Amino acid sequence: MNFESAKSQLTKVLVTEEQIQSRVAEMAAEIDAKYEGKEVLLVGVLKGAIMFMADLSRALNISTSMDWMALSSYGSGTVSSGVIRILKDLDAEIHGKHVIIVEDIIDSGLTLSWLQATLTARGAASVDVVAFLRKPAAAKVEVPVWLVGYDIPNEFVVGYGLDYNERYRSLNCVAVLDPKVYS
Ligand code: PRP
C-alpha cells in the first residue's frame, strides 16, 4: 500500500520508501563490518519488525539465522502500558550465540529493556539492539541501542510494519496517522 491509497487517514510521510531502503543498506553495512566472520542470530519482534527484518536480513552479507518472539506491550490503544507478555517465545536456545534484536520501533523503551535483559540472562554471548525507529520524547527507560534508523517525533506512526488495530502494516513508507482515525 502506498501513501496515496491511504491519504485520507494519514497526515504526512515521515520516512519515504527510498529513505527506508538507503538507511537499511547503511545499517546492514555497519552490522556486516562489526560481525564479520561471526554467525549471528537475528531475533525479530513480531509483528512490527517483519518488514524491517525482511529488508535488513537480505541486505546483510554475514551468515545469519532468524528467530522470532511475539511480545505484547499494549493492545489496541496508542499508549504503552509497560506490561510485557510473551505471546510466542524463541524456537531455539540462544546460549553462547551472538544475538541481534531487530525492532521496528522504540517507544517507551519498556519492551526492549525487558527483552535485552531476558536474552542476556539466557546466556547469549552478546546482545545488540538494532531499531529502525525511535521516539526519544517517549522514552521511559534508557535502552542501550547500538543502531537506530531514524529518530522521529512523538506522534502515532504507521507503516513499514507498524499498525493501528492491525491496519497499515503494509504501507510502504512511515507516516503519521490522522488523529481522527483513533480519537
Ligand atoms: C510495538 C513495537 C515494539 C513496542 C515498542 O509493538 O513493535 O515492539 O511496541 O514499544 P515500547 O518501546 O513502548 O515498549 P506492539 O506491542 O504494538 O505489537 P506489534 O509489533 O505486533 O504491533
Account of the 3D structure:
The strands form two sheets. The protein has a six-stranded mixed sheet with strand order 4-3-2-5-6-7, with helices on both faces. It has a three-stranded antiparallel sheet with strand order 1-9-8, with helices on one face. Helix content is 22%, strand content 31%. The two termini are 23 Å apart. Helix 1 (17-34) crosses helix 2 (50-59). The model has no long low-confidence stretch (mean pLDDT 94). The longest helix is centred in the N-terminal third of the chain and has 18 residues, at 17-34. The chain is of the alpha/beta class and 183 residues long. The structure holds 1-O-pyrophosphono-5-O-phosphono-alpha-D-ribofuranose.
Radius of gyration: 16 Å
Mean pLDDT: 94
* Small-molecule binders: 1-O-pyrophosphono-5-O-phosphono-alpha-D-ribofuranose
Instruction: Work out the helix count.
Output: 3
Strand tally: 9
Q: Order the strands across the largest sheet as they lie in space.
A: 4-3-2-5-6-7
Strand content: 25-35%
Task: Give a summary of the structure in a few sentences.
With 183 residues, the protein is α/β, with parallel strands linked by helices. The chain is built from three helices and nine strands.
